[in-house]
Amino acid sequence: MRVLAGTARGVPLKTVPDFDTRPILDRVKKSLFSILETSALIQDATVADLYAGTGTQGIEALSRGAETCLFVEKRADAVALLKENLAKTRLAEKADVRCGDVRTYLEGMTHAAIAAMRFDLILYDPPFSFSREAATRAAAETEMALAGSLLYPGHARLVLRLEAKADPPAPPGLALARSWADGPHAFAFYKLAST
């Protein structure tokens, strides 16, 4: 696991050594960030990396020119490694790291905070499977909608990582703008439905 491009190119990144997190493969990350750069979604962007793990996607965005990144991750051991990765890549001053549950964090934001906080890009990488966990799909879509409400209108995107065999969710208030799959890996790109 390493940073693929930008100011921190080649810096190795630590990951949690267990199977409770899903680190993104370098090959898949390269394809995703090629799409994001081609779509002009990284340079000078405000980014949120939700379910950040050790921060490999958000750090990649910062290395490639994103202005800031909010990282939210509930595992304390992953957050400790995330902070080490930020220090090693010299990107810590552009990062806001929160240790906590994503849903709790989003629901706990005040209306004033929500009004003041908007993102150009939200990297949304939940640890659950949309293909296996149909019973929790509605709750997951509600959480995605809450996260998506923080997007700037227009060009901004929420990018969901999911299995290629899963149907992309349909969170209220968001519209599927694009999807991409490579073998078992897939990404769904959402925008605000009104834009």
What descriptors fit this protein?
alpha/beta, 6 helices, single chain, Rossmann fold, 7-stranded mixed β-sheet, 195 residues
3D structure, described in words:
The protein is an alpha/beta fold and 195 residues long. It has one domain (26-192): Rossmann fold (3-Layer(aba) Sandwich), CATH 3.40.50.150. It is 31% helix and 23% strand. It is built from 6 helices and 7 strands; from the N terminus they run αβαβαβααβαβββ. It has helices spanning 26-38, 56-63, 76-89, 102-108, 111-116, 137-148, and strands at residues 46-50, 68-73, 95-99, 121-124, 157-163, 174-182, 185-192. It has a 7-stranded mixed β-sheet. The protein is globular and about 40 Å long. It starts with 25 loop residues before the first helix and ends with a strand.
How do the helices and strands line up, and which of them pair or pack?
Layout: H1 26-38, E1 46-50, H2 56-63, E2 68-73, H3 76-89, E3 95-99, H4 102-108, H5 111-116, E4 121-124, H6 137-148, E5 157-163, E6 174-182, E7 185-192
